[in-house]
Design a protein that fits this description.
Helix content is 21%, strand content 37%. By secondary structure, it is of the alpha+beta class. Strands 1-8-3-5-6 form a 5-stranded antiparallel β-sheet. A 3-stranded antiparallel β-sheet has the order 2-7-4. A hairpin with a 2-residue loop joins strand 5 and strand 6. The longest helix is centred in the middle third of the chain and has 11 residues. The N and C termini lie close together (5 Å).
């Protein structure tokens, strides 16, 4: 198991972690589980053509309603928790001969929803 640490600088940000994840797997065959240890960040796989990261973040903003949030700790970041839950904290990626079996345009990304912060990602 490996723990990767990323420092984000923006409130909402996408960080390509594909190469970092690939560096954690062995030369055999198996599956890599990529998991973020936070409730206001998420892990997913997306196409990262230029601008798609901004499109993704703008979409998340667009689906977030302007309502009175009831989160006891800090109502202003309730949407960050909800969006993280919708996207999810993990992905499972098969690998063969030590290579992630991602499609041509697929990239593993950390989705920051309440930055800037340090984020821990576990690869197992």
């Amino acid at each position: 198991m490996h723990t990767l640490t990323f420092t984000t600088s923006e409130k909402r940000q996408i960080i390509d972690i594909t190469d970092d994840v690939a560096g954690c797997i062995d030369r055999g065959d198996g599956v890599a589980i990529v998991f973020v240890q936070h409730t206001t960040a998420a892990i997913t796989i997306i196409d990262l053509d230029p601008g798609t990261d901004t499109d993704f973040l703008e979409f998340l903003e667009a689906i977030t309603p302007d309502i009175k949030w009831r989160h006891m700790h800090d109502p202003s970041h309730a949407p960050d928790h909800i969006l993280a839950g919708l996207i999810g904290p993990s992905v499972v990626i098969p690998y063969e001969n030590g290579e992630l079996q991602l499609g041509a345009w697929q990239r593993v990304v950390l989705v920051e929803l309440d930055g800037g912060r340090k984020r821990n990602v576990i690869v197992s």
